[in-house]
Each structure stands twice: as structure tokens, then as C-alpha cells.
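Table S2 (continued). Query chain:
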Amino acid sequence: MYLLGYAIECKLKRRLMEKYRVLTLDELERKLSERFKGDIRLTGGKGHNIGHLLELFGENPRRKMDAKTWLAFHQCALWRTDWRYDPTEGNETECKVFFEAAEQFVRFVTHSM
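Corresponding output:
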């Protein structure tokens, strides 16, 4: 589950880089800081927050989501980087739910962002 959440984070950052036509995360941070008139960091706490990364698209992408995608996003947004240190995180059912949600959410990010 940890690696899948990290893959979602990377997908969102890649789509942001495409949107803002930049090649590096440093360039993206500069563009986002200009756009949102603040210091935007893509490393550390907020840089790993799926909800925060989604908001950086700017046009309130949550309004584009149908109910199934909204639920998938909500499930994916529960992801935390500290899962990599917790071997008890995620039984088989939780993993299946997370994987299905990730598939739905990544489809939205790929085709609707």
C-alpha cells in the first residue's frame, strides 16, 4: 500500500509538471509559488499529501469527480508516508480496497486533469 500511495503522489506531480510545462520539481515549486503567491514545497509533509497535491491543480478538480471517483480520492488521501514503517498497516481487505480506489483515482488523474 505504501508504494502504491507513493506512485499516486508521483503521478500527481508528473501531471502538475505537464500542466505547468516544467521539467524539474524545483521549477514546478517556483511556478506554483508564483501562481499561489506563497512558498510551495513539494517535499516534506505537504509534498506527500495527495489532497494538497490535487489542490495545486487550481481549478478545484474535486468538482469534476463523480461519486465513485470522490470516494476513491478520499480513500487514496488517507495514504501516509509513515506506512512504510508500520508492518501492521493493511490487511488483505484494506489492501484490496486501497488498490481499487487507486486504480479509479489514477484513471481520473490521467484522463481528467
